[in-house]
Amino acid sequence: MKEMTANSPTDASAAKPEKLRALFEGLYKKYNRKELIKPDPLQFVYRYSNPADMEIVGLLSACLAYGRVEQIQNDLNDLLGRMGSSPYEFALNFTNKDRASLEDFKHRFNTGNDISDLLTLLKDVLAEHGSIEKYFMLGFDPAHENTIFALMRFCDSLLDKHRMTHQGHRSKGLAFLLAGPSLGGAAKRLNLFLRWMVRSDDVDAGLWRSIDKSKLIVPVDVHIARLCRILGFHSHKNVSLKTAVEITRNFARISPDDPVKYDFALSRIGILEDCTGKRREQCNICELLPWCRNRKDW
Questions:
Q1: Is the domain of 11 the same as that of 43?
Q2: Who's near 86: CB < 8 A, 6+ residues apart?
Q3: Residue 20 and residue 122 share a domain
Q4: Handedness of CA 180, 62, 216, 48 (dihedral sign)
Q5: Among 30, 190, 222, 271, which is most buried by a count of CB atoms within 10 Å?
Q6: What's the gap between Cα 194 and its chain centre?
């Protein structure tokens, strides 16, 4: 598959990158702080100090990062409680007894069997390669513009491994957990995992040292999609892989070495400030108000 590229930057984003850089830096200083991580599922990564545990928890937390915030937190608390003091050891030594212990687990569309299928795959990955990072790097080429091809290979190869041991059967639940870019979706949850693993600051863990952060794709959730549309970074009604790349390209014009730098800070406006994209009294003190005023629906 050819590398995904984006259209030219929109007029709004191309107008005054200096003003946008100043805006984003202000938001970064305001929101990109460890004490503001909750209720983000990234909080569960920091429950552990062993990088091997943190990597496993990061992938599981990102895969289950859909639905209501409270439900995500409750279900991750439940899952990690069942995995004991070391999620890495739990995955590395995963047995049928462990599968039985997860059988009644459920998070929205996913069941304990889906989690067990993923842990079975990770058991083989860890035994053969030592870490998720080393397995991911099998599909990564530094010459590529971004991590899309490597993420595609990562997800597709794991799903292929599962099918090979299940008479060609495709698990819908496992496919949902490993929703990569192959079908054109934005792969928000797995790009979120990569952000956590690759970037290093007060928020992101930076456990992986093999990938340059300039290669990352913005994990586009409903908040980022809305705010980036306000900023003129895209004009799509539906979020796709093309949308995510276009947004990333526009951020790269402002921060070429770290286009995903402002993702956490911008998402806090949606999550902590409860931004809905509709005019409210709180909007009067929001840093994005000058851009929102230009919207036709205000």
A1: no
A2: 50, 53
A3: no
A4: negative
A5: 190
A6: 6
Total count of domains within the chain: 2
For 37-84, the pLDDT digits (tens) are 999 999 999 999 999 999 999 999 999 999 999 999 999 999 999 999
What CATH number does the domain containing 231 carry? 1.10.1670
Helix (H, G, I), strand (E, B) or coil at 200: strand
pLDDT digits (tens, 9 = 90+) for 141-200: 999 999 999 999 999 999 999 999 999 999 999 999 999 999 899 999 999 999 999 999
CA distance 295 to 298: 6
Residues in the chain: 298
**210: DSSP letter:** S
> What is the C-alpha to C-alpha distance for residues 239 and 225, in angstroms, rounded to an integer?
7
Please tell me whether residue 120 adopts helix, strand or coil conformation.
Answer: helix
Co-location of 123 and 266 in the same domain: no
Rounded to the nearest angstrom, the gap between the alpha carbon of residue 136 and the centroid of all alpha carbons in its chain is 15
Please list, residue by residue across 46-61, b when 16 or more beta carbons sit within 10 angstroms of its beta carbon and e when fewer do.
eebeebbbbbbbbbbb
10 DSSP 8-state letter: P
Cis peptide before 39 (omega within 30 of 0): yes
Query: Which two three-digit tokens encode residue 165?
Result: 């041991």
Tell which residue, 293, 297, 298, has the closest CA to residue 12.
293
Q: How many CB atoms lie within 10 A of CB 8?
A: 10
Q: Which residues pair with residue 205 across a beta bridge?
A: 200
> Is the distance from CB of 67 to CB of 227 less than 8 angstroms?
no
Q: Which residue has the tokens 């598959």?
A: 1
Q: Is 97 exposed, middle or buried (0-12, 13-18, 19+ CB in 10 A)?
A: exposed
